[in-house]
From TrEMBL:
<dbReference type="InterPro" id="IPR036047">
    <property type="entry name" value="F-box-like_dom_sf"/>
</dbReference>
<feature type="domain" description="F-box protein AT5G49610-like beta-propeller">
    <location>
        <begin position="126"/>
        <end position="381"/>
    </location>
</feature>
<dbReference type="Pfam" id="PF00646">
    <property type="entry name" value="F-box"/>
</dbReference>
<dbReference type="Pfam" id="PF23635">
    <property type="entry name" value="Beta-prop_AT5G49610-like"/>
</dbReference>
<dbReference type="InterPro" id="IPR056594">
    <property type="entry name" value="AT5G49610-like_b-prop"/>
</dbReference>
<feature type="domain" description="F-box">
    <location>
        <begin position="24"/>
        <end position="62"/>
    </location>
</feature>
<protein>
    <submittedName>
        <fullName>Uncharacterized protein</fullName>
    </submittedName>
</protein>
<dbReference type="InterPro" id="IPR001810">
    <property type="entry name" value="F-box_dom"/>
</dbReference>
């Protein structure tokens, strides 16, 4: 027993106060913390050590250096989803290094991450995840919530006012950064772009909510061939893109407030309605589109478009059953496809990392992160997303408040 206690004490030394080590100045601590993996779980544990450590990792100087060191792309923390919404397990974390496989033992150890939604928000639908923020819509579709899980901050506000917006309309929304400045230095400022489509007239109206003025602004109305669907937006530069139910694409320029409809390639497979389509961000710039049918993936890029016409180039065709380790898997009946087709796909893209052009592909053996330019991949989750149509990739740099530690611990 004594040996066991001695061994335990060697593994877990008694915590010493940072003030008891005078040579560890704030600058030295910052240099040490900058060399930790940028995943929030690492800085979360640092922030819980003492008030001094928390002050160091949440200072503007440290965050600025962290931002410069790791670029503009925070690491993936996990996925939000709307599958069985109403339960408190709405968040699926990945490993600390960003490449771990999700397992039951890790899920039991990470009981907190699923409880990021308050009980009053359990029925709310996730619409968007971007830059440490999550946008949710109330069940009556009359209120919105911008949640910042890493900060424990939540901001409620009404949806665009009637009669312009009616709860019976098709709608979707996205949360984006403020008009200028990094989120790390202007943490309270954001914008929400809300698109409402009238099912009868096929007219789409765009509203913008500004967290500075706490007001909605109706910016533009345009005729479309269809209504907006429920898949998440993709931000490319200053332009937001959503899918239309008719397999078209709606684009909205955040600066000029111009709205356009882009037609998808007419010759995607034999029938465009049999393919699972997703907007992507090709390496050479512009707008890309993936089409997955069976195990075949096609990658298209948009050359140009005019009213009523779009020109696409087919850049790549990939056999996913040869790329991904799927051949030895015991296949069972897959969950329903997120489109209106009756065919059941074997693979589809559940989410997109618009910063890295990484598609998170659902397969029967797990979820793979596939870099769509190089086609390099790694497995991020086991078969825990079975039955889920869409997930929302959540990325963030840090967790400054110890009170929010349960988010990722």
């Amino acid at each position: 027993m004594g040996a066991a206690i001695s061994s335990f004490c060697c593994c877990w030394p008694r915590r010493r106060s940072p003030e008891a080590v005078p040579y560890l100045t704030d600058d030295v601590l910052a240099e040490i913390f900058l060399r930790l993996p940028p995943h929030p779980a690492c800085l979360c544990r640092v922030s819980q050590t003492s008030r001094r450590f928390r002050r160091v990792v949440t200072s503007r100087r440290f965050l600025g250096r962290l931002h410069d060191l790791h670029g503009d792309t925070p690491p993936l923390v996990g996925f939000f989803h709307n599958h069985n919404h109403g339960e408190d397990k709405r968040f699926i974390p990945i490993g600390v290094d960003g490449f771990g496989t999700y397992c039951r033992r890790r899920r039991a150890a990470a009981a907190g991450p699923g409880r990021v939604l308050a009980p009053v928000d359990a029925e709310w639908l996730v619409l968007s995840c971007r830059r440490s923020r999550v946008l949710l819509l109330s069940p009556d579709r009359l209120h919105l919530l911008v949640l910042e899980p890493m900060l424990g901050r939540r901001q409620y506000f009404p949806a665009p006012p009637a009669p312009e917006y009616k709860p019976t309309c098709f709608s979707n929304a996205a949360v984006v950064s403020a008009a200028s400045g990094h989120d790390e230095f202007r943490p309270h400022l954001f914008r929400v772009v809300f698109v409402s489509s009238d099912a009868t007239s096929k007219r789409s109206t765009v509203f913008i909510y500004n967290s500075v003025t706490f007001r909605w602004t109706k910016v533009v109305t345009a005729d479309m061939s269809s209504v907006i669907d429920g898949r998440p937006s993709v931000l490319i530069g200053k332009i937001l893109y959503w899918h239309l139910i008719s397999h078209g694409i709606i684009s909205f320029n955040l600066e000029t407030h111009e709205v356009h409809e882009i037609l998808v390639p007419a010759d995607v497979f034999d029938d465009v309605h049999e393919a699972s389509l997703n907007i992507v961000v090709p390496k050479n710039g512009g707008v890309g589109l993936t089409a997955v049918s069976g195990y075949i993936l096609q990658l298209w890029t948009l050359r140009n478009f005019t009213v009523g016409a779009s020109n696409w180039d087919l850049r790549k065709i990939v056999r996913l059953d040869e790329l991904l380790p799927l051949r030895n898997a015991r296949f069972t009946a897959p969950p329903p496809q997120p489109s209106t087709t009756t065919k059941q796909p074997m693979v589809w893209i559940m989410a997109l990392d618009e910063d890295e052009n990484v598609g998170y592909m659902w397969t029967m053996v797990g979820v793979f992160a596939v870099q769509l330019d190089s086609m390099k991949y790694h497995k991020v989750l086991g078969a825990v997303c079975r039955g889920m149509e869409i997930v929302y990739a959540y990325k963030s740099f840090f967790l400054p408040a110890a009170s929010s530690a349960a988010m990722i611990m």
